[in-house]
Specification:
CATH superfamily of the largest domain: NAD(P)-binding Rossmann-like Domain
Number of domains: 2
CATH topology of the largest domain: Rossmann fold
Helix content: 25-40%
CATH architecture of the largest domain: 3-Layer(aba) Sandwich
Strand order of the largest sheet: 8-7-6-9-10-11-12
Largest sheet: 7 strands, parallel
Distance between the termini: 27 Å
Order of helices and strands: EHEHEHEHEHHHEHEEHEHEHEEH
Strand content: 5-15%
Amino acid sequence: MKLLIFVHHPFDLWNAPDWFGSRLQREFPQIEVLQLPDYKRVDAEIPGAEIAITWSVRPEQIKAARKLRWIHSPAAAVHQLMFPELVNSGITLTNAREAHGPVVAEHVIAQIFALAKKIPDAVRLQQKREWGQQRMWDELPRVREIAGATVGLIGLGSIGRSVARSAKALGMRVIAAREHAEKGSEVADAVYGPTETDEIFRQADYVVLAAPITESTKGIANAERLSLMKPDACLINVGRGPLVDETALATALREKKIGGAALDVFPKEPLPPESPLWDLPNLLITPHTAALTEKLWERHYALFSENLRRYLNNQPLLAVVDKKKGY
């Protein structure tokens, strides 16, 4: 049985460290583990693989991989793998949604605090050596408490649930939209179905996008929904860039129809220098850093090694993706 690891990205942390494959080989000596430094040998090696760890594979490679039974993606989002050759195959797909949830939730809470306390404004004033107490109070939206405010979650996966627990601990009200509202939630005060998503935008002081990309979620934060938000409410996106209509958001921020926004993800990354988003003072931009942590690959290893034990023992796998739904 062959396990092929091919994870390559310009950003260092997204690449599987050398110890990852070596440690798997020691723990599972009955398996041949091959970790590739790039994609150059994938075409030659994938036909013999039964298991693969990757977030990027081409349709023709799936066709050639006749022995492949399981792909694990070390990312939470798997929309780039939702092509017919894989979706319609018998290959099981798992992802790393549980590995990213806690640390991304920390980032969301940090963004809520930054927006509520107007930290970006204070930094700009500091750079100008300006004591702006009166100015920060007078300019709307004002500095505010978060206790008693409402967080509205679009998505109740690992990230959404982690955000909800932290928000509740801070005295916030939590509402959420999920595909199956009838399931309710142990962490949200109210749960709405897909047809009631507008309620999240109407009620929330902080709308948090943490949903997968599907046909129904692309552009979910569009001009119509942004117009439903309170004038001091803020939008936070830690899901994926296409969840937001960037043009509509830029207009809403420029015209101060909403209080502010914080974006960690964008349809095109890196965000181009010519993007008008850079110049919006009421927008907090972080360069896709919500999931960064030194513990990342240890968490990946814990999840994958547990799943590998389950696979070898013919037990159900964790974090299985519904390929028809796309998440």
